[in-house]
Design goal:
heterodimer; A: 788 residues; alpha+beta; six-stranded mixed beta barrel; 19% strand; elongated; B: alpha/beta; Rossmann fold; four-stranded antiparallel sheet; 27% strand; binds adenosine-5'-triphosphate; binds magnesium ion
Chain lengths: 788, 235
């Protein structure tokens, strides 16, 4: 025999299916998001490391000016090194039909006649190069795609000053070049940086590297001492112009991939718990009210001699059914969502295959959080019911005490019609219940506000980066640190309105154990195009010999103005400098650091050197200027800010940042679930009253008004409160979306608040309409007969 | 002398506090011998339901002692009270109090499931003439039918004591008599002590003892020597 309580359980669930589903849905999306995000991160990490392993990506990169081949044996003999692959790399310029300017590229050698021991490539189209034909190349697939180049096509490229014609025989992907960023730029862009693979012999000929290499790739054996290996490599290569071996962690493509994945990870760790907490809190409120409305049944069971434990277990099961059902659906949704999303990211990261992984911890966390919240909600209420004697719990439909209506005031009272009075009295007389609904809706508002503000935060990052910090139109970088005369040459060009020099110096910044491998930028005082700005966006004076760090960098290095920073320069004489930090600059992109140009050059003992320039130009002369730049031998690359801005926008809309749209959608689902729930509960609690109103002659509209008026007032009160919650919530969410590459500020953006309010009001109207439909359909007689 | 099923000493019940306090019971002293049928009569609001709730273990007295056999209900823990209700007490509530989401049979099963020696739920429903309606939900039953389900539910556990708060209030004379016969059977066959609250003074004729209630206290207790059968009662 199935126990009658089991019947009751199932029928109760069926009766409140709409509400149960709304709660379940809120839990499901909260849990689903957690599972989805964790699965996404796990899968991406697994895929990345599998990709790296399969294509034998080096663990140490050692650039050198020119090292004889025989050093390879010495490098291989270093303790902890398992393989060494010497290669030749060089800067190149590729002519492409669709750009005015040639595109910068890196030429990379592949061994003749054998597969590379390290940094293998994945051939996507065509065939491998034949080392007998020195004009055969492989081209990076993403770059080829961006310019519609295919195997069989020929391209012109300039290498080491000589212009040559090559035949593309194949397209390739490589774990080394998942992201490509032109030198001196931060934002990866497939179209503006190419990679050419060609045979070692052909490339050595082009760069005058016969019998020599200018980069050594190393892999390490398990348990190797990385720092010791790096030191040993540096000792061997130093006499040959080694600029410092660096680990994979500092390799630029890997760094960007890591940042994107950790961006997702931060969002995965930071944002879903907020959603889940909101869902859990909502669950608590709903269960609370649900059990409250079952008072009579609880009293009755107790009267028959059911123990508190038995009664509790019954409601516990009911709550669990909803919570567990929601959590389970959430896990499934999370898996499905993760699978769909991972495809997008695999394409985005250009992984040639996918290793799909799930993080079991996320299931456990998601399910237990929802179940805990549900139990807490249930137990809390049951406890208050348990202390009642059965007689009190069962007291026949106790009319709520509306006797203390003084609060409303007689004058106002007289001005209102009867239904309005009912709405007002209920709100003033049952503030607890109203507060529950109100806080629930406020949470929905908070989620919406904070998510929408984040969208504005992304826009702000772009605006600040491209219109405030950097106001130039064109950035030029030179092949070598050029003399300041080059700057004068640029100034003389027609149509160039302003030229400001810059010197980027590669360096490792160190404060105690915290290190950052990056670039120190030397700027002239009173720069107007590219500037260091303080938090009020006022220019920071770069006087004296101090260094100004961006906020992200100061945080990463855990350093404050006044402290001394160690700067290990990785160019020229490679001096190690101790420089005081003078202030912290606002920057939402990258982790720049600034010094006064003259002071920087003095510290390097290389006066009057610049590595690039910022230009402001007159658009009318753009083409002429590009041609002139192209003909300047000292110019290595030219980048247009408009292109960089587009690339940045693309990055934020397709990378880790894109997840904000998914989360925004989830926030909306939760908001709707919350508001709909509030409406459903109000209806459930009042269906008898509403039927009574109808019986004594109120129209459907008037009866609905009593209910919906209440919902409307609660929603309106919830909006400002939710805005305040949302304001604080947005800091947490903005943090979750900030990566090392870019920071997303939590800003107060009135339009976002307005939009979020519209979302909540929209949800309220839709819920109201759904409930109103039920009111219209409700059968008077059965509504009167059944208690709720 | 027969043992008492119940006795009370100075039982009072006050609802609320201060000026708005309601004195529902004002010191009730009462002895109810085992195995009797007792009828409580009294005007509305005189405290009958309140007394039933207290000796039925549903509520606690504000003051005074209420004994079941020789156990003091006032001293019992919540758990002991629960066990007392589970093992001994059958209730028919004034407002029926059926579970709306359970059918007639399931409402009875709700009680038989935890009882020590229950009847078959269908049999209990047949006794009140609802054999055909066992699968109906309360919302599908008339008021009187709901009341009869409530009675079947109370007798189905074969209780030691049976409390009926206006068990025939919504019934016509024929079903009313049938219900009273069920109560009489439970009393005679199981030796259950039966307490019936009613407004129909004529029903006092079938009781062993009639208690007149007024204003939170006992006005008069009449021992009835000439018990009538339900069939003989005027309706
Ligand atoms: N929870 C309560 N709070 C305040 N007063 C109460 C409460 N329950 C009952 N009362 C009051 O106690 C008194 C006795 O109530 P009780 O229900 O025992 O009356 P009754 O004799 O059963 O009446 P009826 O024949 O109408 O059922 C009444 O005045 C009632 O208003
Ligand atoms: Mg009563």
């Amino acid at each position: 025999m199935v126990s009658p309580l089991a019947h009751k359980l199932l029928r109760d669930l069926w009766r409140m299916k709409g509400q149960a589903m709304a709660i379940g849905m809120v839990i499901a999306v909260g849990v689903g998001m957690l599972v989805m995000m964790q699965g996404l991160v796990t899968s991406l990490n697994d895929t990345r490391s599998t990709y790296y392993e399969r294509y034998r990506l080096a663990e140490v990169f050692a650039p050198v000016t020119r090292a004889p081949e025989r050093l390879v044996t010495r490098l291989a003999a270093i303790e902890g090194v398992s393989a060494v692959e010497p290669r030749v790399v060089g800067a190149a310029l590729i002519d492409v039909a669709d750009f005015d300017l040639p595109v910068q590229a890196q030429a990379v050698s592949l061994p003749d006649l054998r597969a590379p021991r390290l940094n293998d490539v994945f051939l996507t189209d065509g065939r491998m190069i034949d080392s007998d034909h020195s004009d055969e190349i492989l081209l990076l697939q993403a770059f080829a795609k961006a310019h519609d180049l295919n195997p069989g096509d020929r391209i012109n490229a300039t290498m080491n000053g000589a212009r040559r014609n090559f035949q593309i025989v194949g397209l390739a992907q490589s774990p080394e070049f998942l992201y490509t960023t032109a030198p001196g730029e931060l934002i990866p862009d497939d179209a503006r940086f190419g990679v050419i693979w060609m045979s070692r012999s052909a490339l050595a000929a082009a760069y005058d590297m016969d019998g020599a290499f200018n980069e050594a790739l190393l892999s390490l054996s398990r348990g190797a001492n990385d720092a010791a290996v790096l030191d040993a490599v540096d000792r061997i290569l130093d006499p040959y112009g080694g600029t410092g071996a660096y680990p994979l962690a500092d390799q630029s493509s890997n760094q960007l991939v890591s940042e994107e994945i950790s961006g997702l990870e931060a969002a995965a760790v930071g944002v879903p718990p907020i959603f889940l907490a909101v869902a859990a809190f909502l669950l608590y409120i709903v269960i609370n009210r649900m059990v409250q409305s079952e008072r009579e049944e609880i009293g009755l069971m107790k009267a028959f001699g059911y123990t508190n434990g038995e009664v509790g277990a019954h409601y516990f099961k009911l709550v669990m059914a909803i919570a567990a059902g929601g959590a389970l659906a959430g896990c499934l949704m999370g898996i499905a969502g993760g699978r769909a999303l991972i495809q997008v990211y695999v394409a985005y990261f250009k992984f040639p295959f996918l290793v799909f992984g799930l993080d079991p911890a996320s299931f456990v966390i998601g399910v237990s959080v929802s179940i805990l919240a549900a139990s807490a909600g249930g137990l809390f209420v049951l406890r208050s019911v348990f202390v009642l004697t059965p007689a009190a719990a069962m007291r026949a439909p106790a009319p709520a005490d509306y006797s203390r209506t003084g609060a409303i005031g007689h004058t106002i009272n007289r001005m209102l019609d009867q239904p309005s009075r009912m709405v007002l009295r209920r709100i003033t007389r049952q503030p607890g219940r109203m507060a529950g609904a109100m806080i629930g809706i406020a949470c929905g508002m908070a989620l919406s506000v904070s998510m929408i503000t984040i969208y504005a935060g992304f826009d702000r990052t772009i605006d600040l980066t491209f219109n405030v910090v950097d106001r130039s139109d064109v950035t030029v970088s030179f092949t070598h640190a050029a003399s300041e005369a080059t700057i004068f040459e640029l100034r003389r060009m027609e149509g160039v309105t302003l030229v400001e020099p810059v010197r980027h110096v590669p360096a490792v910044l160190r404060n105690g154990l915290a290190t950052h491998r990056g670039v120190v930028s030397g700027l002239a005082p009173d720069q107007r195009l590219s500037r260091a700005l303080d938090s009020d966006l006022r220019p920071i004076a770069l006087d004296g010999g101090g260094i100004v760090l961006s906020t992200a960098l100061a945080t990463k290095l855990d350093i404050a103005p006044g402290d001394m920073l160690t700067v290990e320069v990785r160019t020229g004489r490679q001096p190690v400098l101790e420089i005081p930090v003078t202030s912290v600059a606002e920057s939402l992109l990258g982790a720049p650091s600034y010094m006064d140009l003259t002071a920087l050059n003095r510290a390097l003992r290389e006066p009057n050197r610049v590595s690039g320039a910022y230009l402001s130009i007159d658009e009318a002369y753009a083409t002429d200027i590009y041609t002139a730049l192209q003909n300047m031998p000292s110019v290595a690359g030219v980048s247009l800010k408009s292109q960089a801005e587009v690339a940045f926008q693309t990055l934020m809309n397709t990378g880790a940042g894109a997840i904000r749209y998914v989360m925004g959608a989830i926030a909306f689902v939760i908001t709707f679930g919350i508001v709909y729930n509030a409406a459903r509960i109000a209806y459930a609690e009042r269906s008898r009253d509403l039927a009574s109103l109808r019986v004594i002659g109120f129209t459907r509209g008037e009866a609905a008004f009593v209910l919906l008026g209440e919902l409307a007032i609660v929603t309106l009160i919830a909006l400002p409160i939710g805005s305040i919650f949302g304001y604080y919530l947005s800091f947490g969410i903005a943090d979750g979306f900030s990566t090392e590459l870019y920071q997303i500020p939590a800003i107060f953006d009135p339009a976002s608040y307005g939009f979020a309010a519209m979302v909540v009001i929209g949800a309220a109207v839709a819920s109201g309409w759904l409930v109103k439909r039920d009111i219209d359909r409700a059968e008077l007689v059965s509504a009167l007969k059944t208690r709720e | 002398m027969t043992k008492n099923a119940f006795s009370t000493k100075g039982v009072t019940k006050v609802y609320g506090e201060g000026r708005s306090a309601v004195h529902a019971l004002r010191g009730v002293d009462l002895d109810i011998p085992e195995g009797e049928i007792v009828v409580l009569l009294g005007p509305s609001g005189s405290g009958k339901s309140t007394l039933l709730n207290i000796i039925g273990g549903l509520d606690r007295a504000t003051d005074g002692d209420a004994f079941f056999q020789d156990q003091n209900l006032s001293d019992m823990s919540d758990r002991q009270l629960t066990m007392y209700r589970r093992d001994h007490v059958g209730f028919v509530f004034q407002f029926y109090n059926l579970m709306p989401s359970l059918t007639a049979r399931e409402n009875v099963e709700l009680v038989t499931e935890i009882a020590r020696d229950p009847m078959d739920p269908d049999e209990a429903l047949a006794m009140v003439g609802l054999r055909e309606r066992v699968d109906h939900f309360p919302a599908q039953l008339s008021g009187g039918e709901q009341q009869r389900v409530a009675i079947a539910r109370a007798v189905a556990k074969n209780p030691t004591v049976l409390f009926c708060d206006e068990p025939t209030g919504a019934l016509d004379s024929q079903t009313g008599r049938a219900v009273l016969n069920v109560l009489k059977d439970v009393n005679e066959k199981l030796g259950a002590t039966v307490l019936i609250v009613t407004h129909a003074a004529s029903q006092a004729a079938m009781a062993d003892r009639v208690i007149h209630f007024a204003d939170g206290g006992i006005r008069e207790v009449i021992v009835n020597d000439k018990k009538l059968t339900p069939e003989e009662i005027e309706w």
